[in-house]
Amino acid sequence: SVFAGMNGSAIENFSCVIYKISLMNCTWQAGRDAPGDTQYFLYWQNSREDEKMECELYVKDENGRNIGCRFQNVRIETENAYFLVNGSSKDSLIQFYDEYIQLYKIEILTPPLNVTAKCTGDSAGCTITWQPPLTSHVENIKCFLYEISIQNK
Q1: Distance CA 119, CA 123 (A)
Q2: How many domains does the chain fold into?
Q3: Which of 1, 27, 130, 150 has the fewest CB atoms within 10 Å around its CB?
Q4: Please, what's the largest Cα pairwise distance for the chain?
Q5: What is the per-residue pLDDT across 57-97, written as a single tens digit (0 to 9) for each?
Q6: pTM for the full model?
Q7: CATH number at residue 37
């Protein structure tokens, strides 16, 4: 479109992760050809019912430019969340970047809870037990897959 903005001015390498159940970190890099005074702003919408909100806690680089955002109390909904990063510069129009992300796909799960190993001297060997990781949205614990790596026999 006419107002598309300068090529190479949109952010690059946008990515987000959710950790510790409800915290989310998003990061990006400034566009390769963005003017030095370009500042970026992130807006997101968790689900269609929610309104678009601007990032409340930006992460800045040494020049004070926003290069990331930290979120708290994030709920993982079933539908895609929408992310939009636009920019402003006094010299030129900055292209925006947007992406839809399914939040459950970017969650780093906490480790399983209460892992215990009981070993008996006889042929029964060892019994290892644990409980599922904490998560905000997995209702069916049969969804979890586990892998045990035994380092020395």
Answers
A1: 10
A2: 1
A3: 1
A4: 77
A5: 999 999 999 999 999 999 998 889 999 999 999 989 999 99
A6: 0.84
A7: 2.60.40.10
